[in-house]
Amino acid sequence: MSIKNSLLWEKYRPKNIDDIILLPRIKSYFENGINKNYIFYGHYGTGKTSLARILIGRYSKDKAFLEINSSLYTSIDVLRSEVEKFCKTQPILETEDPIKYIFLDEFERVSSQYQDALKAFIETYHKNVRFILTTNHINKISDGIKSRFTSIDFDCQNSQEEKLLKQEFYKKITNVVSPKEEINISKDDLVNIINKKFPDFRGMFVELQNFKDTGELYSIQSNVSNKLKLDLYNILYDKSQDYEKIYHFLMSNFGPDKIDIIIRLLGKNFVDWSIQEKRENIDKLFELNYILSAYSSKLETNTDPIILGMTIIGKFRDILIEK
């Protein structure tokens, strides 16, 4: 795909440390390059992969590196072939950096056996190989691996960090992307995109791409009729709806590709509707919000989307329907 026709989030993927939007506390780790093994963890779309690629020299071509997508190559055989072969390779030139770099992306997808075996590679090649792992789910990384790495959290720790990242993304769009792409977007619309998608920078670019292509902001309401939204909300209170009926409702009207829309509809949209129509249940919204937050993150894992949607609706019904 040519740069001209590439998607915005890929076209503007940063290629050096100065261009990437990062919190100062993260950038400070790499003022002198990579001197440890690192785990980058946190929400998807926050720059973990981009930073790893910059650090290993994927764009500068000044280092020997190996990059493996662990969601595609999960077999322990990858360690015995690709990784071990790379670790044993000697530098071609005397001036070449004696340290080599291995980047394992989406590392949470590999097995416990894979993780156990990797520990031996880290110990064996600790003098001349540095590893970077990225993951959205740090809890899926074994303690044995984590004890050998410095873990860096890419999620914001406070409101000041959140404000800083939002401001930096806003400046990048207004000063760089919009002029180059001739995108005439208002300040309010851009702020709306940033607030809706934060901290997912990639998601912000997808929304901006949609605006560039259509001239309209992505809207749940444009994809879901008001009747369908009300049907979904009424199901949460309707005792006559059994599992089979609800399952067919989800499959017929949303399907596995649109469960994310259901999750969004059960967020602020449902809160606003409940305040207007079901004020007697306002106190239950605290528990419903907790359920939605706890389960919505699972959409990015291997969970079946339909089963996830059914689970969330079931949890909501357990709270809203009087027994």
Helix-strand layout with pairing:
Layout: H1 8-11, H2 24-27, E1 38-41, H3 48-56, E2 64-69, H4 77-88, E3 100-105, H5 112-124, E4 129-135, H6 143-146, E5 150-153, H7 159-181, H8 187-197, H9 201-214, H10 220-223, H11 226-235, H12 243-253, H13 259-277, H14 285-296, H15 305-320
Parallel strand pairs: 1-4, 1-5, 2-3, 3-4
Structure description:
Helices cover 51% and strands 8% of the residues. Helix 4 links the parallel strand 2 and strand 3 (100-105). It has helices at 8-11, 24-27, 48-56, 77-88, 112-124, 143-146, 159-181, 187-197, 201-214, 220-223, 226-235, 243-253, 259-277, 285-296, 305-320, and strands at residues 38-41, 64-69, 100-105, 129-135, 150-153. With 323 residues, it is an alpha/beta fold. A five-stranded parallel sheet has the order 2-3-4-1-5, with helices on both faces. The model has no long low-confidence stretch (mean pLDDT 87). The N and C termini lie far apart (57 Å). The chain is globular.
